[in-house]
Amino acid sequence: MYYKTLHSFIGFRLDNSMLVREDMDIIAAMLNRLKSNHNEEMVSRSGSSLLLGSLLVAIMALAGCAGNQQGYQNAFNNQNSLTQNQCTFTQSGDAIFKIVKQTFIQQGFTIESADLKSGIVKAVRNMGDKEDPEISYNIHASADISEVAGTETNISLAASQQTILHRSTTTWWHLLWILPVIPTGTEYQTLVIKEGNITEPSFYTDFFNSVKISVTKYDLALKAAAAKAAEKAEAEAKAAAIKAEAERVAAEKAAKLKAEAEAKAAAEKAEADRIAEEKANAEKQATEKLAAEKIAAEQKAAAVEAARIADEEAAAAARANTQTKKKKRVANN
Questions:
Q1: 125 burial class (0-12, 13-18, 19+ CB within 10 angstroms)?
Q2: Bridge partners of 192?
Q3: In the prediction, which pLDDT does 112 show?
Q4: What is the largest CA-CA distance in the chain?
Q5: How far apart are the first and last CA of the chain?
Q6: Three-state secondary structure of the chain
Q7: Sign for the pseudo-dihedral over CA of 182, 185, 191, 193
Q8: Are 155 and 96 in contact (CB under 8 A)?
């Protein structure tokens, strides 16, 4: 089992030119384990020795090759740059920022950080291989969202991955140090068998296709919200117009009723004033008539009194004249 694991590990690292010092430590540990458990794989002593010698020679050769690798110096070479990892949208930066986060989450990524000010979103996902249960992938992705001249928004995506091998091995108690008889436990191994940037254009194309779908849904949602807002505004305007018309009719009716009431009150007041004035005039006329009649009566009474007095005075004068004549006659006699 360890021989197969070690052989797969070295072969993969050779194919991808990725053998480094850490790999040598891993291989050394696996060799020690292989040496101590060679009976489990049922290989002969001579075969084990030959295998160990061959592997040691291969490790020394690979270590020499690995020490001469300096491919990282071409990291900014155009030939090593990513392709199809950028896409431009007409939506605002804030909208695209939200959509990118939603796209990551919908695809099973966990958001490590998201800074709206810088426009950087970092996400990670641990994904198992559908065909090989012993293989998983640790994917790290970074998206940069930048507005271009205020009219467009550009997304740049970069991603790296680690291909991780998970192995479990059963340990046995050996009879006479040869035959495995009783399982004593399980040992687990985790090895990074491949890592580096994801350069396949399809990876980035799939991401941007997902973003485009979300952008389309976002635009449709905006249009639906705008239509709903317009309908609401129209309904509110209609309701306001109906309310204003009702208020106008009510105001006109109230004004008409008020005017009618005021006119009625004014007419009633005028009638009351007329009646009061007529009554006052009648009373005045009666009073004046009574006063005139009183004056006439008083004048008549005064005339009668004056006539009586005159009559009395005339009678008195007549009597006095008569007495005077009598006295003259007496005197003459």
A1: middle
A2: 164
A3: 96
A4: 227
A5: 210
A6: CHHHHHHHHHHHHHHCCCCCHHHHHHHHHHHHHHHHCCCCCCCCHHHHHHHHHHHHHHHHHHHHHHHCCCHHHHCCCHHHCCCCCEEEECCCHHHHHHHHHHHHHHCCCEEEEEECCCCEEEEEEEEECCCCCCEEEEEEEEEEEEEECCCEEEEEEEEEEEEEEEEEEEEEEEECCCEEEEEEEEEEEEEEEEEEECCCHHHHHHHHHHHHHHHHHHHHHHHHHHHHHHHHHHHHHHHHHHHHHHHHHHHHHHHHHHHHHHHHHHHHHHHHHHHHHHHHHHHHHHHHHHHHHHHHHHHHHHHHHHHHHHHHHHHHHHHHHHHHHHHHHHHHC
A7: positive
A8: yes
CA–CA separation, 306 vs 324, rounded Å? Answer: 26
Alpha carbons 28 and 63: distance in angstroms, whole number:
12
Question: 186 and 170 in contact (C-beta within 8 Å)?
Answer: yes
- Sign of the dihedral defined by the CA atoms of residues 231, 237, 240, 241, in that order: negative
One-letter amino acid of 278: E
CB 90 within 8 A of CB 215: no
In whole angstroms, how far apart are CA 278 and each of 264, 282, 294? Answer: 20, 6, 23
% residues pLDDT > 90 (the chain):
44
Mean pLDDT of the chain: 80
pLDDT greater at residue 274 or residue 45: 274
